[in-house]
Amino acid sequence: QVRLVESGGGLVQAGGSLRLSCAASGNILSISALGWYRQAPGKQRELVATITRGGNTNYADSVKGRFTISRDSAKNTVYLQMNSLKPEDTAVYYCKADGVLTAVGLFGVVWGQGTQVTVSS
């Protein structure tokens, strides 16, 4: 079974930086796309950034210029470098994998359990 495990969350002051990691485990052959989503208190889950197998990236307007998504395909790991953090970035951040090909089948969508990011003012 494919599993995603996020790490790197924590408490930081406004203006600080944090780097999130998400590692996909299993007998994975390839992943079409990886992304980061977040859900703040009282709000719906929203897309933060995505990256395809080919390296194409997409960012939410609210994080452009501050966040950078990257991936290491050999390690089946995706990262989110977050700089100039703001209190409004506070949320649970979730990792998402799309089109996960393994030796036993193709999985359309796999979600991680999430990691808490709290930015204090």
Helix segment count? 0
State the share of residues found in helices, binned by percent: under 10%
Largest sheet composition: 7 strands, mixed
Write down the secondary-structure element order.
Answer: EEEEEEEEEEE
Low-pLDDT residue intervals, each spanning 5 or more residues:
none
Distance between the termini: 40 Å
Gyration radius, in Å: 14 Å
The share of residues in extended strands comes to over 45%
Strand count: 11
Shape, please? elongated
Task: Give a written overview of the molecule.
With 121 residues, this protein is mostly beta strands. It is 0% helix and 63% strand. It has no helices and eleven strands. The protein has strands at 3-7, 10-13, 18-25, 28-39, 46-52, 57-59, 67-72, 77-82, 91-102, 105-111, 115-120. The strands form two sheets. Strands 2, 4, 5, 6, 9, 10 and 11 form a seven-stranded mixed β-sheet that branches. It has a four-stranded antiparallel β-sheet with strand order 1-3-8-7, with no helix packed on it. The protein is elongated, with a radius of gyration of 14 Å. The relative contact order is 0.33. The model has no long low-confidence stretch (mean pLDDT 96).
